[in-house]
Write a structure and sequence with these properties.
One of its GO terms (biological process) is methylation. Keywords: Methyltransferase, Transferase. It comes from Sulfurihydrogenibium yellowstonense SS-5. The radius of gyration is 21 Å and the shape is globular. By secondary structure, the chain is of the alpha/beta class. Helix 4 crosses helix 5 (96-108). Strands 2, 3, 4, 5, 10, 14, 15 and 16 form an 8-stranded mixed beta sheet that branches. Strands 1, 6, 7, 8 and 9 form a 5-stranded antiparallel beta sheet that branches. It has helices spanning 7-20, 25-34, 57-60, 63-80, 96-108, 110-115, 125-134, 199-207, 222-234, 249-252, 289-296, 309-315, 318-328, 331-344, 349-352; strands spanning 23-24, 85-90, 116-121, 141-144, 153-160, 169-174, 177-186, 189-195, 217-220, 235-247, 263-266, 269-271, 282-284, 287-288, 302-308, 353-360. It has a domain at 1-52 and 166-230 and 248-284: 3-Layer(aba) Sandwich (Rossmann fold), CATH 3.40.50.12710. It is 38% helix and 24% strand. The protein is built from 15 helices and 16 strands.
Length: 384
Amino acid sequence: MHLTGKEELINIIKQKIQQEGAISFKDFMEMALYYPNLGYYTSEKEKIGGLGDFYTSSELDPAFGNLLAKQFNEIYENYFKNQKFQIVEIGSGKGYLAYDVLSYIKNNYPNLYKILEFISVEKSPYHRDYQKKLLKDFDNISFHEDLTEINNINGIIYSNELFDALPVHLIRKINGKIFEVYITLEGDDIKEVLKEPQKDILQYLKDLNIDISEGMTTEINLYAKDLIQEIGNKLEKGFVFTIDYGYPSKELYKPYRMRGTLLCYYKHTYNENFYQNVGLQDITSHVNFSALVYYGKKSKLYFLGFTDQAHFLISLGLMDIFQELQEKGDYKSYERLNRLKTLILPKGMGEKFKILIQSKNIQNPDIAGLKNLPYESDRYKIEV
């Protein structure tokens, strides 16, 4: 296979292989996405929206962030009234979702806004600089490169499409044995080779009772395992909202996903050519929400609920926004209606995106976003 994309980054990857020998697919993916200034997420390339490679829910309409703000205010009123309250967004990108959340809180919940401390965590220097300009009119906001820079959070930690972008290990089952996919050089090209897996991978499979089918290639996200525990350790009291696409283990590793879930996004098209457009395209995999629940418990995160975006937004009042726009009846309102429908369409964003909610040190937690839940099939059933 011939690597294409950013020549400087490709040469760095090849040099690493020449110096160290075969590297894991995880190492390759990490360099492709996060190598300083050259990786997909760390470069200044436009990634989201019409000029980028994909859309997020927050890009389509501010209602997504507005309804999140409504949920956050309910949590403040019920569990933190007149107490220290922080909202942390991890992987906040250019800050569009933060802008919608903060705007709605500022305009509708002055008591919350007055005491709120908003913390943005974003690895990319380019995105942090963009955020500082976009969010300059809001009070009590701080910007951080890494979660290690903050401690003792009381309130809410949330992320939107963060875990799917974490580098993953690739594994393959051959003759009943698990191997890990590595990458080496063959002349000027690269090829995949199979090697003994890291012990942490085998422990992960054992912990979650995962037995993949013969011949299957799939992903193991050890970064996600570590990150959810770090989040739990940073949270003293409050809630964790993880918004992303994926499934519980029972659904994620079914035999009809023999090639796993890894996909690349480039200019609003998707492909499985991981070694093309290196540094220029996104590489993602579906989130194993069972893993977030299992390892979250190790840092005292309690499983509260698992739903999809459609049920979550409708539970928080999306249909009221629909009604208001229909009553206005003007062109702009109908434009918004069409965008909002995209957020909840079955087989689309409404079903694709899931919301996992965990809590810590909250007595009898109960929140509006979990009022109406989807049917508990294998796609939604998390065994805790």
